[in-house]
């Protein structure tokens, strides 16, 4: 109470003893059913008002454009280089502001935007008309989907990671890695891969990163993804342990048997030494019992979604897998990944919220999620 009185002497302070607001997040607790929903309902409307972006006439279901495969063709040609005009300095600054504004929202409650933001950010320093078009596409998606909700349920606080990569899916022959990090129940056998799929939970962290190096094969791209996601997982493991949640070897799932075999030393690689650093680091962490790398088919890999630019139908189908959908009917028909294969509340500007600390697992999970998402987004 002394801190609260001191703050009142300097600032206009509002109190929220129910713990319904935290760093711009709206929190809805359900202690009876042991879950918590987080959202940012005022963020997107405030962002649209700031940039004076109108609501699109037609609902935009995808945050980015996509390339339709040419089915039956013997060769799939790469996307032509972007030769559209370079934007003015003012337009480039506006795009950078939009990317920064949406990145906080995407990291907090809507990971569906991450792939689009990564592609736009990779070209924003020398943005072209095509970059502006992609940015407007993302703004239309935000206006069409203004509210995203993530639900976290109680669990044993054991970290799970699903890792994947898409090969040569980005400009300049680069690949994209994706990772889905979540907390679930403790595995029954700590030395063996999970036999059944772990109980799903809201994403603790989502990775969607363009790999810096040009990968020589799909297996090398998958190993690169394992390397990126294991590095993020090391930070999460250490934080969870320091918070009093001991971690077994973290299950790290991949859908590429070659990459899994190389990391687990069950396959001897005879390629160049370019991938040695990546797979030896992951292999070393595995031998230290930090990670348990195992193979599962792609249809069970939740990291796959964040590695590609999908069409709108796939986005709308997958929303109920990663986000909390209002309709109970959609919650009951959650799809597997390949079934179709600013930080302030705008209504409380210039105020300081003092919250009563909640000493329960859901509160710990919420604070951990927010802090780790922001720290990991700064690293990537």
Topology:
Layout: H1 2-8, E1 13-16, E2 21-22, E3 25-30, E4 35-39, H2 43-50, H3 89-108, H4 114-121, H5 129-144, E5 149-153, E6 158-170, E7 174-184, E8 203-210, H6 218-242, E9 250-254, H7 257-263, H8 276-287, E10 291-295, H9 312-322, H10 328-331, E11 352-355, H11 361-379
Parallel strand pairs: 1-11, 6-9, 9-10
Antiparallel strand pairs: 2-3, 3-4, 4-5, 6-7, 7-8
Helix pairs in contact: 3-4, 3-5, 6-7, 6-8
Describe the protein's architecture and organization:
With 380 residues, the chain is α/β, with parallel strands linked by helices. It folds into 2 domains: 2-151 and 316-359, no CATH class; 155-300, Ribonuclease H-like superfamily/Ribonuclease H (Nucleotidyltransferase, domain 5, 2-Layer Sandwich). It has 11 helices and 11 strands. The strands form 3 sheets. A 5-stranded mixed β-sheet has the order 8-7-6-9-10. The chain has a 4-stranded antiparallel β-sheet with strand order 2-3-4-5, with helices on one face. The radius of gyration is 21 Å and the shape is globular. The two termini are 39 Å apart. Mean pLDDT is 82; it is low at 327-335 and 338-360.
Task: State the secondary-structure class.
Answer: alpha/beta
Q: What is the alpha-carbon Rg in Å?
A: 21 Å
Spatial separation of the terminal alpha carbons: 39 Å
Sheet with the most strands, sense and barrel status? 5 strands, mixed
Helix count from the secondary structure assignment: 11
Q: Which strands sit side by side, in order, in the main sheet? A: 8-7-6-9-10
Q: How many separate domains?
A: 2
Portion in beta strands: 15-25%
Helix content: 25-40%
Low-confidence stretches: 327-335, 338-360
Mean pLDDT: 82
Give helix and strand order, one letter per element, not per position: HEEEEHHHHEEEEHEHHEHHEH
